## 1
Amino acid sequence: MDLQHNDFDRILFFEHARKTAEATHAKNPSDADNLTRWAGALLELSQFQNVQESKIMIQDAISKLEEVLVLKPKKHDALWCLGNAHTSHAFLTPDAEEAKEYFDTAAEYFKKAVAEEPGNDLYRKSLEVSAKAPELHVEIHRHGFGQQVMGAADGPSTSSGTMAAKKKKSSDLKYDIFGWIILAVGIVAWVGFGKSNVPPPPQL
């Protein structure tokens, strides 16, 4: 997969964040904030994988966020992240009915996040956008972009010129769909790690 410099920096940052959260979890499994940051890092990293690997990472993030809710059932940022995770999983699911179940679950989590923190514009915007997600999903898969979303370049290229154009279109579409999710998750993770005083990743 071709990665721009900024993408590479983000991968390094969130891979470091993932490893740091994993190490922290080994020492303190009941740290709900750390579990939330770990899940956020997984959601970020999932966008750079092929579809199957993305789904595995998203599912891992979901399981960690569900652990958070066992510890703190009303933790609004975990509820919101779960909404994002289920939305991401839905877009990677070609079957519209199956995807709708993920979208419905996502909407429920967004509603709970808004209920816990009604003044949060990001949560309200996520809930608002989630209502349009199933329609967007249908359009994406109708036009055959579904398998290209989230870096699903599983097969070898045939015509480099045509594939380059498709890759550009796929990349643009990917960021259109997941931009609001990824940006928001990134903000949460950066702020969370800033508060945790995590040391910077080693310079290569």
## 2
Amino acid sequence: MASPLSLQTSDSGTSSHMFFSELREGSTRPIMIMVYRKWDVTSVNGRYMSTDYIVTNIKGVVMHCTARNNIAHYFFDKLKEGGVYLVNGFAVQPTN
């Protein structure tokens, strides 16, 4: 079972974090990200579905991330556009 999600504002110190190219299902090391864009996704009938993010890492690699409606409340007030974070306890899942 994955550890609880942990977010820390980065102080740009050196840590043993992964880069996006190293992410695989089952990855457990933290990643350092900058939130570039954040938006809520709703269905055509107005039902909230997720909060989505465009994030980048120090190498400039861009990734789309989704926090589905059952876990998005962990992120609402924590991840801000332009913020840099060290993220632990996340799950890497294939897209459908």
## 3
Amino acid sequence: MYEAYFNNKFTNLLVFYIYLLVFLLLSPFLFVWELVSYVGSCFRCKENMSGKVVLITGASSGLGELMAYEYAKHGAYLAIISTQKPESRLQQVALRARELGSPDVLFMFADVSKVDECRMFVDDTVQHFGRCG
């Protein structure tokens, strides 16, 4: 019964070219959709940060500040470090992180290029929170 439809060369070519056209038109959109979905999944926080301690250096501005806000939204305890400068906004970042949901924020001024100060702020973080990580 269906042999007449499948033996017709014109119908076979028509179906093939329509399929090819649809595939070529839709594949870039599907590729972009998959790419956007994959990149978006890379930035979603999959780990439960609630109750964990996160130590962030350079937290008074830029990426460090944004990381502090993101971890605060997920309920992490924060230890934020920045250099002591007149334009340092570390205290404002700590207040904003508390507003966003961080249970406790410890902020310190230190220079990460000095080993003694690095040891100091890690020890202070462990002493304040009882752990680091």
